[in-house]
Amino acid sequence: MKIICIGRNYVDHVDELNNDIPKNPIIFFKPSICKLEGFDFKIPEFSSDIHHEIEIIYKISKSGKNIAISDSINYISGIGLGIDFTARDIQSKFKEKGLPWSISKSFDNSAAISKFKSIDEFKDIENIDFSLTKNTAKVQSGNSKLMIFKIEYLIHYISQFISLEENDIIFSGTPKGVNKLKVGDKLEGYIENEKILNINII
Ligand code: ZN
Question: Which residues make up the environment of ion ligand 1, defined by Cβ < 5 Å?
């Protein structure tokens, strides 16, 4: 299983980090070891600026390469929510030097993954509301229609370069509102107003 992540996929988040709107999807990876087990995320010692990024995530149903946009939907088995935990201090240092910032995104436990809902439970996958609360206050909210690159295009695009396999997970990018976490914070993720993600920061 691999975790494929999309960067800068919502205009409001691109703006808050002073980045440019990408012409093509920005792709990075989290190794499978990054999957957070359980409900507690421990802030790692190497960072003093861990951010939350709530994202719609998609589970891949079968292997595929060079998938046509029109066929992409047949490769999605489930939809859920993930948190792409990011060491923003480390990322900023590497970005300044123009170096790859993998380590700021791809450390142990950096991918919180909810249960997956069947794709059939959604009326329109290009109109899915989602949000994140921190200590019950809403801090991030978005809708899949606001993605710069929609999931059907992403599956097509990614599969030109990297074969998709059953159980791969795509993190589709975060809207604005990313911010620093501290010990004791409680995060809750909602998709179409249903709470499906619950993480304690320890
Ligand atoms: Zn992200």
Answer: 53, 84, 174
Q: Report the chain's terminal Cα–Cα distance, integer Å.
A: 27
Q: Which numeric CATH code is attached to 3-201?
A: 3.90.850.10
Q: Return all residues near 172 (Cβ < 8 A) that are at least 6 apart.
A: 6, 9, 55, 56, 57, 58, 144, 147, 151, 154
Mean pLDDT for the chain overall: 97
Ligand 1 centroid–CA 178 distance in Å is 9
pTM, to two decimals: 0.97
The answer to whether 110 touches 84, Cβ cutoff 8 Å, is yes
Ligand 1 center to 46 CA (angstroms): 19
The type of residue at 16 is E
pLDDT tens, residue by residue, 112-122 = 999 999 999 99
Quote the ligand 1 centre to 150 CA distance (angstroms): 15
Tokens representing residue 120 in the block? 């059939």
Distance 6 CA to ligand 1 centre (A): 6
What are the residue ranges spanned by the domains of the chain? 3-201
Q: Is 10 in contact with 170 (CB distance < 8 Å)?
A: no
Q: If you measure from the C-alpha of residue 63 to the centroid of ligand 1, how many angstroms do you get, rounded to a whole number?
A: 24
Distance from residue 171's CA to the centre of ligand 1 (Å): 7
